[in-house]
Design a protein that fits this description.
Blueprint: E1 4-16, E2 20-27, E3 31-37, H1 44-47, E4 56-62, E5 68-77, H2 80-83, H3 86-102, H4 110-124, H5 130-143, E6 165-167, E7 173-174, E8 183-185, H6 187-199, H7 209-225, H8 232-239
The structure holds zinc ion.
């Protein structure tokens, strides 16, 4: 059987039966895959800590539709700085869940792979705040082709003025001539998100409190619109105090 060498993040991991584990992997080469690690719970020698959530690993597997078979995994980094801060754990789990829920199986997404790597490194370095979270999310939406139009009305195409835009259900942004109701998203919030897309780098975009809150309202609505279920880790993130309470 053909053995492939891949790079991956472990985005979730669960026990299976007495001695095995099933891991959800986000690989550089093939995007999201599910892997079966036989004997991973009995023998720590074979996989060690490489199948913990957040671990960045080099691995060998037999790729199959549905469930690939893991042969070996070596740790590149475990991001141990994330594991000792509750807010960082909450943000990291949420980011991994977004990748797991919103990406198609078996489709390479190298830009998203690099974005997740940069975000986990940022969390690992002791930074975990909502501006970073929104930067990750808007770039993820953009890479997946789900980004709302931040500069122009989604219906008539006119450029948003100083009043910003009105958000419709699903996160669609429209101008005041195309809709009379909807949550107002200020131009400062839209500008902040555009800057997040332009830089793509953590720590460079500053939001004021109102803009951050409104950017969050828009992104939460857009993400929810593209997922068939609620994100499990969102409640934990809100409890851990890492989220604005919009
Ligand atoms: Zn319009």
């Amino acid at each position: 059987m053909h053995l492939e060498k891949l790079q991956a993040f472990v985005i979730s991991s669960s026990d299976y039966g007495e001695s095995d584990r099933i891991v959800s992997l986000f690989t550089l080469e093939h995007g999201r895959l599910k892997g079966f690690a036989r004997g991973a719970r009995n023998s720590r020698k074979r996989f060690g800590p490489a199948l913990e959530t957040f671990a960045r690993i080099d691995l060998q597997l037999n790729r199959k539709d549905g469930l690939s078979s893991l042969r070996s995994a070596d740790v590149i980094t475990l991001y141990s700085g994330i594991r000792c801060v509750l807010g960082a754990i909450a943000h990291g789990l949420y980011a991994c869940e977004l990748v797991e829920c919103l990406t198609p199986e078996g489709q390479p997404l190298p830009r998203l792979y690099r974005l997740l790597a940069a975000y986990l490194e940022r969390l690992d370095s002791g930074h975990s705040d909502d501006a970073d979270r929104r930067l990750f999310e808007i770039n993820l939406l953009n890479i997946l082709g789900y980004r709302p139009s931040l500069q122009r009305c989604g219906r008539c195409g006119s450029t948003f003025d100083a009043h910003g835009a009105l958000m419709q259900q699903g996160g669609e942004l429209v101008c005041r001539f195309c809709a009379v109701t909807g949550r107002q998203i200020t131009s400062a919030a839209l500008q902040g998100l555009s800057s997040c897309l332009a830089t793509g780098r953590f720590g460079l975009v500053a939001f004021d409190q109102e803009s951050l809150q409104l950017a969050g309202v828009l992104i939460d609505e857009s993400l929810a619109n593209h997922s068939s279920r609620k994100f499990k880790s969102l409640e934990f993130l809100q409890q851990a105090g890492g989220s604005d309470r919009s």
